[in-house]
Specification:
By secondary structure, the protein is an alpha+beta fold. The protein is built from 18 helices and ten strands. The chain is globular. Bound molecules: fe (ii) ion (2 copies). The site of one fe (ii) ion has 4 residues, from loops.
Length: about 500
């Protein structure tokens, strides 16, 4: 996985600075946040003379003083969930995400909005800074003032903390006012994956899970889906093999919300659907890891246990008091997600009933995501087209045919961003599905070709455009692997 967002593009209107360039500042800021994260953690474990701790302090000092030399001051501020280094917003990378999250969470807990350093720093100053921060109790608004006072008592006047401003506190409304919607979509995606992971871990350890946070993130995701579903849908192509359970939950939620949107669901209903989808496999936390990750076929006892996960999920959800009033649709949706239309799935019912709408939506999203993701027992996943073809075959028995049709329209046989070969020997990238369900294999594409000078030219082409003698002008022959052709697909969407 690469960088979440390019860290190089300077926004228009950014004031000119005499010190470091915005790009340099952004780069050094990212590395500083990572180093700070490690040092803060280490400072909670070791005492001041520990060799490891001192090594990390020196690394930090080096980076911090580099900034100081060029910029004369170093301020790290938190604003609407972002971190700014001397007014430059730092864009985090996938690898840096944990560090960003750590710093933001720690400061928020301690009601600190940022810290300013002026003048060259030495080891003693940095040590006092860390211990003063560590000693602050959670949730006190006077923490920033107390911190600065403590520093002054150690004769350190060049380090100050600013309090967290309530108004600047992150909320889903304000995130969406940001210019970079794509970056927001990515952040919501990764943060949701992290949050669902936390929720599952907390439930396993019998702690109170932070379900409210999950709900807030789903609300933001709903707004994103309503504005432009393609942003979040594009992210479902990140198939993370190691974190399958968490990525899977988020992907299923995105697909489900996109289907719900096409069905005209209200914001409230979409949020309910998103949460239900996010929690659909919660019951699997009661299934041992060896069974979940078994590369071979499950034996009868294991399979029987696996089939209990919808019911166990219901049990877990009913115990999540923080979810507020538990919506019956959530409970039933989780219970129904493996029933299948002809009830040939599981659990077995004593009395026949039709699977609920939530259950039927989630089932489609669930099967598709599972088929298109590599798993321990199937290293090479199905392509989007293969998965949809298999699902279409089962449409009478397993899926709601109308919902399946909507879903196929949504992801298309050639999902947005596929590299394809045309019968004209041209190479193209799909960028928009055909709105006519009969013409799913005829999306709009960007044809890429090089002119005589070797420069890349692109032209937009609609594959439903007729050619002579009733046939089409161009058709897709097959999909190609973008890595083999050294084509950076993302470039064509920014
Ligand atoms: Fe499931
Ligand atoms: Fe699932």
């Amino acid at each position: 996985m690469g960088t979440v967002a390019s860290s190089t593009d300077a926004k228009e209107g950014t004031p000119l600075r005499l010190g470091m360039s915005n790009t340099d500042l952004s780069e050094i800021g990212n590395s500083l946040v990572k180093k700070l994260h490690v040092m803060m953690r280490v400072s909670q474990i070791y005492d001041a003379n520990n060799v490891t701790f001192r090594r990390f302090m020196h690394e930090n000092l080096e980076t911090m003083n580099t900034v100081m030399e060029k910029e004369e001051k170093l301020s790290l501020k938190m604003l609407k969930g972002d971190i700014f280094l001397n007014d430059q917003r730092l864009r985090y990378s996938v690898e840096g995400f944990t560090s960003f999250k750590y710093l933001i969470t720690q400061w928020k807990k301690k009601r600190i909005g940022g810290v300013t350093f002026k003048g060259v720093l030495d080891e003693r100053m940095l040590r006092e800074f860390l211990y003063a921060m560590n000693s602050l109790p959670d949730g006190r608004n006077e923490n920033a003032a107390n911190f600065s006072e403590r520093m002054a008592s150690h004769k350190i006047h060049s380090i100050e903390a600013v309090p967290l401003d309530e108004i600047e506190d992150e909320d889903s409304e304000s995130i969406l006012q940001k210019d970079d919607q794509k970056a927001v979509a990515k952040r919501v995606f990764f943060e949701t994956v992290g949050t669902i992971k936390d929720v599952i871990t907390q439930i396993k350890q019998k702690q109170y899970p932070d379900v409210r946070k999950l709900k807030r993130l789903v609300q933001t995701a709903v707004r994103l889906v309503m504005q432009d579903e393609s942003m979040l849908l594009g992210l479902t192509t990140i198939k993370n093999y190691d974190e399958y359970t968490f990525n899977h939950s988020v992907n299923v939620a995105i697909y489900s919300m996109a289907i719900g949107r096409r069905l005209g669901f209200s914001k409230k209903a979409l949020t309910e659907l998103g949460i239900t989808a996010m929690l659909h496999d919660l019951g699997k936390l009661k299934v041992p890891r060896e069974v979940l990750n078994k590369p071979d076929k499950l034996d009868k006892a294991e399979w029987d246990l696996m089939k209990k996960h919808p019911l166990m999920g219901v049990e877990v959800v009913l115990n999540l008091k923080q979810l507020g009033e538990i919506n019956p649709r959530t409970v039933i949706g989780i219970f129904d997600h493996h029933l299948k239309t002809d009830l040939s799935g599981y659990p077995k019912l004593f009395r026949k009933k039709e699977p609920s709408l939530f259950g039927r939506i989630i089932q489609i999203a669930d099967v598709y995501d599972a088929m298109t993701t590599p798993r321990v027992y199937r290293k090479k996943p199905y392509s989007s087209g293969e998965a949809l073809a298999i699902m279409l075959n089962d449409r009478e028995t397993a899926f709601d045919p109308v919902l399946l049709k909507i879903f196929i329209g949504l992801v298309g046989i050639f999902p947005v961003g596929s590299l394809v070969l045309l019968d004209t020997k041209e190479i193209a990238i799909t960028y928009k599905a055909n709105s006519d369900p009969e013409l799913l294999d005829r999306p709009q594409v960007i044809v890429i070709h090089r002119d005589g000078t070797g420069e890349v030219k692109k032209s937009f082409v609609d594959l439903s455009e007729p050619g002579g003698s009733g046939a089409y002008k161009r058709s897709i022959v097959k999909t190609l692997d973008p890595n083999k052709y050294h084509i950076n697909i993302v470039k064509y969407f920014i």
